[in-house]
Amino acid sequence: MTTTLYDLDREAFGEVLDGEPRYRLDQLWSGLYEQLADPVDITNLPKKLRARLDSELPTALTKVTESVNDKGDTVKFLWELDGGSRVETVLMLYPDRATVCVSSQAGCAMACGFCATGQAGFTRHLTVGEIVEQVVRASQRAAESNRRVSNIVFMGMGEPMANLERVWSATERIHGDIGLSARHITISTVGLVPGIRAMRDLPLPVNLAVSLHAANDTLRNELVPINKRYPIDDLLDACADYLDVKNRRVSFEWAMIDGVNDRDSDAEELAELCRKLRPSAHVNLIPLNPTPGYPTKGTPLKKVYAFRDLLEKLGANATVRQNRGTDIDAACGQLAAGQPVTLSKKR
């Protein structure tokens, strides 16, 4: 696989710049990660050096399409990678923040039937450079609207914990060099307990999000197949350990599926799980977004809010997440990088 511009760390760039004055490394690093500039646009570098860097170190992401929703506040990028795999990145502009939803794999092996990425299957892990470059490109796009990216969520294509070594290296780069606070970075998982425990022992206090979707093993085994390997009790133990060490919020993502996980009994089970964590986990309720491979519909919005109200009455903190980019297939669970999906049987 070709080494690309953002694959290189500072030490590796020092070798690339061997023979140049030492200060050139500072200039290059600042240009790439503080100015978020392409090498050809880092004007305090000599033109000859800029041209060499541009020719020797290609970027990893080739833009195939860029889609903007009707409101103009959500942008979805479709990228092609070395070897032909494709991934998607979503930039979401809010009044008080700008968030990038980053992919960590091309496809996903977790096989959650209601998720378009899971329906498409797994292709490969993304490299550090491919992950970091998503943030850089989205940040450049945000700057066109005089906005600065403030939040990163690893909730795009793929299971971050299955590619944790590269995801963590990218996170350190995003934190240490691009300059985003660890408290504004969220890494999600469908419940890979070893990954949660490994991240517990890593230095940055990033937020942990768990795609839960069911609060009993019988239903979760069906919705999230990895639960058969790492059942809910083991998952909760890992989340509790993460809270103890990091003192950061753990959130439970809950895609609301009509007639499947939106009953009063589901709310009661979920609230009980939340109370087991101290401080209590926060629940993000997400009306299921439509995907070609999962015919079951999302819970009607009125019922979503009633579910939230019941959770709060039962002592759990809950928020209804605002869907962004549904009209351009950029919302939660819809990222498939243009890959066809197979229609699954209805429950």
UniProtKB/TrEMBL annotation:
Q: Where is the Radical SAM core domain?
A: 94-327
* Keywords carried by this UniProt record: 4Fe-4S, Cytoplasm, Disulfide bond, Iron, Iron-sulfur, Metal-binding, Methyltransferase, rRNA processing, S-adenosyl-L-methionine, Transferase, tRNA processing
Tell me which Gene3D superfamilies the record gives: 1.10.150.530, Aldolase class I
Note the InterPro entries from the entry: Aldolase_TIM, Elp3/MiaA/NifB-like_rSAM, Methyltransferase_A, RNA_MTrfase_RlmN, rRNA_lsu_MTrfase_RlmN/Cfr, rSAM, rSAM_sf
* Gene Ontology CC terms: cytoplasm
- What other facts are recorded? Reaction proceeds by a ping-pong mechanism involving intermediate methylation of a conserved cysteine residue.
Function, as annotated: Specifically methylates position 2 of adenine 2503 in 23S rRNA and position 2 of adenine 37 in tRNAs.
State the protein's name.
Probable dual-specificity RNA methyltransferase RlmN
Species name: Ilumatobacter coccineus (strain NBRC 103263 / KCTC 29153 / YM16-304)
List the taxonomic lineage. Answer: Bacteria, Bacillati, Actinomycetota, Acidimicrobiia, Acidimicrobiales
